[in-house]
Structure formats: C-alpha cells, structure tokens
Design goal:
About 50% of the residues lie in helices and about 10% in strands. By secondary structure, the protein is of the alpha/beta class. It has two domains: about 240 residues, Rossmann fold; about 40 residues, no CATH class. A hairpin with a 2-residue loop joins strand 5 and strand 6. Helix 5 packs parallel to helix 12. The radius of gyration is 20 Å and the shape is globular. The relative contact order is 0.14.
Length: about 290
C-alpha cells in the first residue's frame, strides 16, 4: 500500500521513522511545525532512514483562557499523547521525532515517547520573537498589562489596539518562562531533546538547520538503541524539577512531570534502597 504514495522497495527496507507534529491554524505556537517537520525528515533521509509525517491536534491555553474552551486544554494533552502512541504502535515505527510547541503538546509528546519506549526525540518548535511598539520590545504579558492600563485610563483604546497588533509578530509559543518554555527546558534537562535545540526561537534562521541536524541525530539515537527507559531516571526528573524552580518556571511542570514519571516504563526500577536511605537521611538532591 505504501508504494501507492511514493515509497519504493529501498525506502521500505530502511528504518521507518515517525515525524509527528501538531500544526494547526488556531494559534502561533505550532504554526511553523510543518516546515520544521520537513527539515527533520531531510535529516533522517540523509542519515539513512525513511521518515513518515504524522499530524495531531492542539488546544491553545492562551486563546481559550477565560472561556469554556479552557476546559478542553488538559484533556487535549491526553488525546495528543494517545494519538502519537497509537500511530507509533499501529505502524511499528522504529523511531520517533515529536515536534511539539505549546503547553500541552510538549508533555504529550514526551508521554507518548515514554509509553512506546522506542528511540526518539522531543523537538520544541520554539518561542515567539519580541514584538515592537514605539521603541519598546513587547511580549504577550505586555498585552495583558495594556488591557488593564486602558481600563484604568492610562492609555487610549487606540494605543491598546496598536499593542495588540504588535505583540505577536509571527510563529512561536508565548515569550516568557511560562508553561511552554519551561517544559521545553525540562525536555532538554531530562535528555529527551538535543541540548540547545529548544532554546532556538521559532523564527530564528538557525532553527531549520538545527532541525535537519536533529533528524540526523535521531538516526544515531536509533543506531545506539537509546530508549527513554534508559534516560528517564529519578535523577533526571530531580534535575528537571530543580532547573524549573531555579529558572522561575511554570508550576505546570509539577503535574506534567508527575505524568512523565508515571509513563516511564522503568520508573519502578529506578527506585533503590540507596535512594530511600538518602531520603531518610534528609539529603537534598542537587543539579550536578
């Protein structure tokens, strides 16, 4: 059947690599993901694999905030994780690249990868760039402040409109150490994302070549049979929590981090008498 969409015998004889993303036109967070997925696929092909693109959905916390739609956000995390897992298992992919970009798709990608426990990477599509208004750099929080300022009579309705129009200049997740950027940092500290990849902004010129390189790296991860169960240790979670706290990151890392640890197929094996003794002695783990 796959020959009907362009795959030949040679392509089908190579490792089959799933490249998932949550491109959707309801938010800027994931708007560049099809382009990044294409770059990841280029790297996979160059390194001897056959990539296949898979898409899922996303709900924007920022867009739905304050509405009934916000009730769908946490549910979407489970749906995204389930859909990635379902396709990965159903089509027997050898490795996964999960391109993610917003509050719930990032933990969902990691959860799915941990469940299937196959070699893979979580790739954050990046933070949004600053907007510019009257010589000032703007982030999404400036719009929230401007709404209050207009209500208090400190700026005009016209100025508020100008700020709203300038705050989000392109693709990318909310510019701040909110949930998306915190979770993206956590993915690097956990070892599920290539170190330094997630910090490249969405529209930065370096993002595409880094995505090609990520595709190549994924094939190395596959060749080494490096699976999430070997990476998601208790120490890695402690380091991730410490990093989130030290950076003043989102407290959403707590519920999502708990889910990640529960998805880890080896998390029970990561408990040890030595570790329990350290806890009993009151020793506090630190980031090495």
């Amino acid at each position: 059947m796959l020959k009907g969409i362009g795959f030949d015998d040679h392509a089908l004889s190579l490792p089959q690599v799933m490249v998932s993303h949550a491109w959707i036109e309801t938010m800027p967070c994931n708007y560049n993901q099809r382009d990044l997925a294409a770059a990841v696929k280029e790297g996979v092909r160059a390194a001897g694999g056959t990539p296949q693109e898979v898409n899922t959905i996303a709900i924007s916390d920022g867009v739905t905030m304050g509405t009934e739609g916000m009730k769908t956000s946490l549910v979407s995390r489970e749906l995204v994780a389930d859909s990635i897992e379902l396709v990965a298992r159903g089509h027997y992919f050898d490795a996964l690249a999960c391109v993610v970009g917003c509050d719930k798709t990032i933990p969902a990608g990691a959860m799915a990868l941990a469940r299937v426990n196959r070699p893979g990477l979580v790739l954050y599509s990046g933070s949004i760039a600053y907007g510019h208004w009257r010589g000032r750099d703007l982030a999404i929080a400036d719009t929230f402040e401007a709404i209050g300022a207009e209500a208090a009579g400190r700026i005009s309705a016209e100025e508020l409109k100008e700020i709203e129009d300038a705050t989000c200049p392109g693709a990318g997740a909310c510019g701040g150490q909110y949930t998306a950027n915190t979770m993206a940092m956590v993915m690097e500290v956990l070892g599920l994302s290539p170190f330094g990849y997630n910090t490249i902004p969405a529209m930065d010129a370096k993002k595409r070549p880094a995505s090609v390189e990520a595709g190549r790296l994924l094939m190395e991860v596959l060749a080494a049979d490096r699976r999430p169960s070997a990476i998601l240790t208790r120490s890695s979670f402690e380091n991730a929590i410490a990093a989130a706290a030290a950076s003043g990151g989102s407290t959403n890392v707590a519920p999502s981090g708990t889910f990640h640890s529960n998805e880890d197929p080896a998390h029970e094996a990561n408990e040890s008498p030595q570790r329990e003794a350290q806890e009993d002695a009151g020793q506090v783990p630190t980031v090495p």
